[in-house]
Design brief:
- The chain is of the alpha+beta class and 310 residues long.
- The chain has helices at residues 2-27, 40-56, 62-65, 141-146, 151-167, 172-177, 179-194, 213-255, 257-272, 285-292, 298-309; strands at 66-69, 73-79, 82-83, 92-95, 101-107, 111-121, 127-138, 199-210.
- The strands form three sheets. It has a three-stranded antiparallel β-sheet with strand order 3-2-5. A three-stranded antiparallel β-sheet has the order 6-7-8, with helices on one face.
- The protein is rod-shaped.
- Its main location: membrane.
- It holds the Pfam family Band_7.
């Protein structure tokens, strides 16, 4: 039973590896047009000659046959112009046959591409200059070598055109305020387009949006006018609230004349606390009116009271 189970597991693993290899070859342009397992009579003869050359020149042939790639690199080997089964080799040491094998070294590290400023006409007919940064890496070394002549150059050119196409469908206020959504849209579009090249676009960031000088002045004037209008509205509201508060205060003071005297004394206390050499004390008008009113003699007042009592 154990032998049967182990045999089934091995068969399943072989089937998975075969399916992965077939899927990988179907993703490579032109890989399905030929049978890579049958090199032909000429190919077999050249392979035998290469092995014979390795044996004859041993051990000097080891310096030519063994190659090393770093942890962040992969080697795509072509034997007689055909891809060797198993995909890219590495990291570490791998073996090639002289004269018939050729390999391409692919770097898998993330690369940064600074998109040069692009003159873009927005949806609302405004010309702006926009630059961005694209972070990408090679996710499949075999496809990046077999499907496109220069994967990095193709990705960079596509990033420039995608930047112009995406920004051309957005108005100016969205470009200035919604950069995150534009960056995500560009990342999705670039990732879908470069998948067949073995490239993975990890991140896209818009660096700067440059506006024409005349447009900057017009926007600054518009913003300044809007701020002045808001300031005038706020000042008018403050005056309205202050007038209401003064009206309420005058009503309170009119009900109690002593409140006006207390207010004057409070003002005098405030002025004296500021270490002023000259103190101006306002004289209440009510006091002046009190002294200017005609006063009746006391005797006439007493006689009138006596008459009333009798």
């Amino acid at each position: 039973m154990q032998n049967a189970d182990s045999t089934e597991v091995i068969d399943l693993a072989n089937h998975v590896d075969t399916s992965r290899t077939v899927d990988q070859r179907h993703r490579i342009i032109g890989a399905e047009d030929s049978a890579p397992t049958d090199p032909g009579v000429c190919g077999k003869f050249m392979t035998v000659c290469a092995w014979a050359l390795v044996v004859i020149t041993f051990p000097f042939s080891l310096f030519v046959c063994f190659k090393v790639v770093q942890e962040y690199e992969r080697a795509v080997i072509f034997r007689l112009g055909r891809l060797i089964s198993g995909g890219a080799k590495g990291p570490g040491i791998f073996f090639i046959l002289p004269c018939i094998d050729n390999y391409a070294r692919v770097d898998l590290r993330t690369r940064t591409y600074d998109v040069p400023p692009q003159e873009v006409l927005t949806k609302d007919s405004v010309t702006v200059s926009v630059d961005a940064v694209v972070y990408y890496r090679v996710c499949n070394a075999t496809i990046s070598v077999a499907n496109v002549a220069n994967a990095h150059q193709s990705t960079r050119l596509l990033a420039q055109t995608t930047l112009r196409n995406v920004l051309g469908t957005r108005p100016l206020h969205e470009i200035l305020s919604d950069r995150d959504a534009i960056s995500k849209t560009m990342q999705v579009l670039l990732d879908e387009a470069t998948e067949s090249w073995g490239i993975k676009v990890e991140r896209v960031e818009i660096k700067d949006v440059r506006l024409p000088v005349q447009l900057q002045r017009a926007m600054a004037a518009e913003a300044e006018a809007a701020r002045e209008a808001r300031a005038k509205v706020i000042a008018a509201e403050g005056e309205q609230k202050a007038s209401r508060a003064l009206r309420e205060a005058s009503e309170v003071i009119s009900e109690s004349p002593a409140a006006l005297q207390l207010r004057y004394l409070q003002t005098l206390n405030t002025i004296s606390a500021e270490k002023n050499s000259t103190i101006v004390f306002p004289l209440p008008i009510d006091i002046i009116s009190f002294f200017t009113r005609p006063r009746e003699p006391r005797e006439s007042t007493k006689l009138a009271q006596q008459n009333q009592s009798s």
